[in-house]
Amino acid sequence: MKNNIIIKFGALVFLFTLLISSCADALDQAPDGKISLEQVFQDDEKTAAYLNSCYLYIPGEGHAYFFWMRGPVDWSDEAWDTDAEAEPWITSGQLYDGNVSAASHFNTMWADAGNGNYWQRMWTAIRKCTVFIDNIDDAAVKSEANRSRWKAEAHLLRAYYYMTLLKWFGCALPIERTAYHYTDDFSTTERSSYYEVVQFIIEDCNAALSSPNLPWRITSNSEAYRFTKAVAEGIKSRMSLYAASPLYNDGKNYWEEAYTINKQALSNLKSNGYELYDKPNFATWKTNEDVQLPNDAAKLFNEYFCNNMGFETNPTDKETIYQTNAGQDWIMTEGIGAVMGYKSGSCPSQEIVDRFETIDGQPIIDLAKPYIDEITHLQPNYNQNNTLYDPQDPYANRDPRFYASVYYNGSKRTCFWPFDEPAAALDNYPAKKGWRTRIISTWEGEPQTGRNQTARKATRTGYFMRKFVHPNSGQETVTNGHAHAKVMRLGEIYLNLAEAAAEANHMDEALQAVNAIRSRVNMPPLSGLSKEELILRIRNERRVELAFEAHRYFDVRRWLQPTDNLEKTDRWITAAHITRNADGSYTYKRGPVSRERLCYDNKFLKFPIPLNEVNIMMALTGEDWQNPGW
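The chain above was modelled as a monomer; its predicted structure follows.
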């Protein structure tokens, strides 16, 4: 698409709403509808307020999807949402049963914490940012430093919103350099390619980076959640990787470009004070036996996700690039449901558990073909070089990140347990209600924490989420409060560089990047691998390091060809089917969670554009802009 095409595709719903008012100058009204935009930009405080309104559309992500769930984590092969059975009308149940369409998809409905209704909301946000960029140069602001910083933030916000659209919809989009007007001819609307939109995103990021007044880090609570130069580098890193990936690259090779961008992004971030979180810092984890984690590597990883980044000059957490204000660790709706008696939320799958290596650095399954039966996953194709893994003692000698991320059969949790143990709770009986350490038993029939196909507080998979849950939170327990969603962090940038470098044949740098991630949790370095082997290991490292952070949903898609489907990853999700024997030992088998998921065919690689929007554009342009299959 030519750069002089000025359009606003997705906000046409917004435009047609304005038509109802028959007010030709409605688009020139300020947010309160009482003064014009011209008047807004002639006032310093109102200009600042307009920019603040541009921040209102950032998706919260984390654990704040409707109805208190993890969205793409539960819609990938990482986890199973307990509400899919308990409340099948909610999003996961609809998706698992294939009961969605372009007219009845969660993208067209809920937007809890900004998670949902992306098409309308992102385009509305993009227009607001563009209006700000169009007006800020001539605005009556008191400080030229503020003018520079505010303009940089608007560019960066627009890039972030475009990134959100590309993540979910993965299609060609119009580029909006200047705000559209009521009188524009929308019949000439054109779309730029995925790659061209990414280039526009990078252009906006570079505009933000050029401002001497945009900081690298927020150092005051009064400016919490504002964007920084670090966010610009994070967006460039992620989107250059996506643009080079098979689903989006239109058969072209952009890996060298992605490598160059990611190498520079990591260098710039490190030069400006960002570093991996590499040790436990708080007594709650470092010296407290009740944390129930086996080593410092597991402690630091769990601690990192259970605490918020600090808005200060020298924060303890120097890894987080951006954190939203969406809650992350509410034990009421995630983790071990029996702690509060309500629901367990996202239950980790056997598939993600299979990806955590043993401590000698060996995968437990063959990464090239992880399952003999590639669709049902019931027959693991074990790595013959792994001598530490025992399928009947499956949780011994594993990567420290496994213990920090997952509650499994035989693990322990110390907190306030609000019940007396019944006699059927064989591993814990007798024990009374109160503060105590409980064995987390997930075998079939265990009345409190055992696997169950319908109970909301139970586990569907034989596992519970641990990664974001404070170790001791629960009834009558004082914790650090709700941790917020860390949606962009340095660990991702290292892995983005590792992948791009390997794909572009910079093998030494790929190894350095992935080994930096492994070394901080005391996992052996990778070496002596072919390009194909290294790419498999880097992809597996992403699954382990970024588990449950909503990357897997997008990764598994972007690694596919446009004609592929998700049958081998998403059609069947498996669980640990565990039997407790009379002597107190356990027998471990694998089986399906409950049913086949019907959200695996080709169309599920991308979200549908809402049907009403497609109909509008069909009427205006004569072209069907819908994603394939919808």
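Strands lie at 79-81, 320-327, 346-348, 406-407, 411-417, 434-440, 464-465, 484-489, 574-580, 586-592.
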